[in-house]
Amino acid sequence: MAKRSGIKKLAALVLACAFALSVGLTASASDLSRQNTYPIVLCHGNGGWGRDEMLGYKYWGGTDDLQKKMTDAGYTTYTAAVGPYSSNWDRACELYAYIKGGTVDYGKAHSEKYGHARYGKTYPGLYTDWGNVVNGKINKIHLVGHSQGGQTTRVLIQLLEQGSAEERSASPSGVSPLFTGGKPWVASLTTLVSPHDGTTVSDFNTDELKQYAKQAIASVGAAAGLGDNLIFDFKLDQWGLKRNAGECYIDYADRVWNSSVWDKSNLDFSFYDLSTDGAAVENGWVKAAPDVYYFSYAACATMEDPITGYQVPNPLYMNTLFSANSLVLGRFRRSEAGRAVIDSTWWPNDGWVNTISEDGPKLNSTDEIVDYGGAAQIGNWNFIGTMQNMDHEDIIGRFGNADDRFLEIARRAGSLPVVG
Predict the structure, then answer these.
(1) Contact call for residues 352 and 148 (beta carbons, < 8 A)
(2) Cα 194 to Cα 119, 146, 295, 316, 338, distances in angstroms
(3) CA–CA separation, 320 and 121 (whole Å)
(4) pLDDT more than 70, % of the chain
(5) Number of C-alpha atoms within 13 angstroms, CB side, residue 212?
(6) Dist CA 88 CA 240 (whole Å)
(7) Whose CA, among 53, 154, 266, 372, lies 20 to 30 Å from 413?
(8) Of all helices (H) and strands (E), which one includes residue 71?
(9) What is the DSSP string of 292-335?
(10) Helix residue spans in 245-293 (DSSP H)
(11) 10 Å Cβ neighbour count for 334?
């Protein structure tokens, strides 16, 4: 393990130096100057948790506190916590309330359509001044989304800017402000290894995915040394799965795992949104906003098998817990009418997500993806590049140092001009 860690750190250092040189050749001095002081909000991916869970083991950084590192560097940063397995719509509604403050409203039309409660938890708000106008300028935020968090934040921006005509029609006198639109409150979004076109992991059997989810939670608990002392909130209150007072975690978890929310027929759930089919549907109505800067990072920790031509986990860089996923991702094919064709271009992966899916939305999307050369294009996806020899969680510092990467993200966000 020590040898693997040392090799990864050396490789990461070489990659970071190469990346810094490439950016230095194209970026002007003005790109590095601070032009805004908007706070940064981190949104976790599938199976994620908040700062008050897992006995302090951080989703963002593990034993290293990336929120604190960014804040100490002068970039005020907050960590959001939304439903780890909820749909992107539900998570976006929760993220809005979590940041602004108030009671989660999933929408009358949406909740009736899918059969869960309309209202959720009430939050005090991370940044209650969000959206307020001061001296003629809107208090905006920068969003950073890891994995599914990239999809969720895209849905949030879409609803903020365009609202929902269906929700306005269903509840004209009591509609949530989120669904009224006209809120250009986000300055930028940076996505890290997000399945914009879905992940073929979610095209597998739902029962297998549930087992992967159990394994993922257990592996984080083991890495944090928590054992059976997990403090993990599934945040599925809207489905009647709230942890009862005095209920032990094992009983609570068993009740959640045995519920019907995991059924493949449930289209208001993360497994559908993360599939290539679900992502294509989402990409059809969630569009890049013309007044938001979008950035994306991809990662790959596989290599080609010289005999089969398949992509297999690189044992020097891939977390062994992701190997089973990676092997299936690295050879999965599909050619069916009406569905995305999955061929060998989809095989490189980071253990959870196909690398091809991480630069930005393409399936059923009109968004434009451009290579970032130091001068960001507003309204388009500025693709930073693929981080080679890096798996799905290395990029957020779970099993390696990500301080420089996140400070780079913060500096880039802070250098963006004030718009609106």
Answers:
(1) no
(2) 28, 6, 11, 23, 23
(3) 36
(4) 88
(5) 21
(6) 18
(7) 53
(8) helix 66-72
(9) SEEEEEEEE-EEE-TTT--EEE-TTTS-GGGHHHHHHHTT--B-
(10) 249-257, 270-274, 276-285
(11) 13
DSSP secondary structure, 16-57, as one string: HHHHHHHHHHH--GGGGS------EEEE--TT---TTSGGG-
Residue 33 identity? S
Retrieve residue 272's tokens. 């559908």
59-86 pLDDT, tens per residue? 999 999 999 999 999 999 999 999 999 9
Could you give the residue numbers annotated as active site?
147, 350, 392
Residue type, 217: I
Only one residue has tokens 């040392």, namely 6
What average pLDDT does range 272-283 have in this prediction?
A: 97
Residues 372, 384 contacting (CB under 8 angstroms)? yes
Identify residue 330 by its one-letter amino acid code. G
Which of 396, 306, 316, 382 is closest to 353 using CA atoms?
396
Residue carrying the six token digits 């700062």: 51
State the residue for tokens 């939305």.
Answer: 361
